[in-house]
Amino acid sequence: MSASRPLNLLFISTSVAPLGSGIGGGVELTLLNLSRELTRRGHQLEVIAPEGSALGSLPVIQMPGKLQPKAQNLSRKEIPASPDNSVLSNMCEFARRNQYRYDLIVNFSYDWLPLYLTVSFDTPLLHFISMSSLNDAMDFEIIKAGSSRKNRIGCYSRAQAETFPDPNIFTVLGSGIDLDLYSYCDTPDEYMVWIGRISREKALEDAFHLAQMTGYPLKVMGKMEEQAYWDEVSDRFDNAQVDYEGFLSTREMQAILRKARALLMTPKWVEAFGIVAIEALACGVPVISYRKGGPSEIVQDGITGYLTKPGSIPGLAEAQSKIGNIDRKVCRLSAEQNYSLEAWGDRFEQWFHSSTAQSSAYL
Ligand code: HBI
């Protein structure tokens, strides 16, 4: 239980899509689980997000305005910009006008505007960085915000922090899931699963390549963000036995996930965390991933899955051939020990207190 007094919190959602659309990727589940856990602990929480958002049964302040272009599409030297009447600036303006109603404001948008505003808010404005380093202008604002006020920048993993010029400004918070939503399975069927936004940075082609090379069935779940990309990959590996199961609710997704031999993660970019990895472990499903980014901090090689050389399809195949050596009960235990909502909620409460320690009013 929280040892601290209840806080009045405002969360600013990701600016690229309404919550629940699936385009927000892992951040959508992060916001849902964190909001539920902090509310359970007695904190007063308001979430502001692009109109059309849903966050379970939690109320959301719906903000109109044009969505922000995805930061993943920025080249390193490109200058991030916002459209006219941008939902991002409308959310920031709401936060600025109402800031005195809150003890803390946490921004979940991966955008320069809220970062730039860090020093001009009286209420502490914190930032949860949801992706690795992508763009120089973004890196600059993240480091500037993190250097101007202590403990204001949170992230998922150490590997993610290390992709930025100054990893020390980051508070590594990991992630957490509601373990009760995932049921352990000891008797898998004969298929692998790949779960994630169908988008180029996720390198779905490697999973298709493995399926074609081994002739082993693969089930894919996740938001179909780029249909052309899917078509291109399925044409290229037209002998692979791959079924697209759609973008499903957690309940429906885990019903397919739990029966898998293993979860396959093939990130091209440095995956900040990979929440699907802890969802798999919670079902007792081992994880096969590249030794890169968040998954390399989640998977214990040879114990809860296998880590292989990034981009190596033969490495994935070798891991798949010995996946029977992994004890599925140990996978579930690992999720219980490291990724419960309680442990994660404690880390966020500690972050909140560390970031407001300077001003006694917020103790
Ligand atoms: N891009 N510009 C921008 N802003 C975000 O908040 C953002 C993004 N790309 C993806 C994203 N957020 C997250 O929802 C996750 O996909 C990581």
What does this structure look like?
With 363 residues, the chain is of the alpha/beta class. It folds into two domains: 8-176 and 340-362, Glycogen Phosphorylase B (Rossmann fold); 179-338, Glycogen Phosphorylase B (Rossmann fold, 3-Layer(aba) Sandwich). Helices cover 34% and strands 15% of the residues. It has a seven-stranded parallel sheet with strand order 3-2-1-4-5-6-7, sandwiched between helices. Strands 10-9-8-11-12-13 form a six-stranded parallel sheet, with helices on both faces. Helix 1 crosses helix 13, helix 6 crosses helix 11 (313-321) and helix 9 (275-282) packs across helix 12. Mean pLDDT is 95; it is low at 359-363.
- Provide mean pLDDT, rounded: 95
Give the helix tally.
Answer: 13
Give the C-alpha Rg.
20 Å
The structure class reads alpha/beta
Percent helix among the residues? 25-40%
**CATH-defined architecture of the largest domain:** 3-Layer(aba) Sandwich
**Which ligands are bound?**
7,8-dihydrobiopterin
Counted up, domains total 2
Strand content: 15-25%
Can you write the helix and strand succession as a string? Answer: EHEEHEHEHEHEEHEHEHEHEHEHHH
Ends: how far apart?
17 Å
**Order of strands in the sheet with the most strands?**
3-2-1-4-5-6-7
Query: Main beta sheet: strand number and arrangement?
Result: 7 strands, parallel
Instruction: Kindly provide the name of the CATH class of the largest domain.
Output: Alpha Beta
State the shape: globular
Unreliable runs, pLDDT <50, ≥5 residues?
A: 359-363
CATH homology superfamily name of the largest domain: Glycogen Phosphorylase B
Number of strands: 13
CATH topology of the largest domain: Rossmann fold
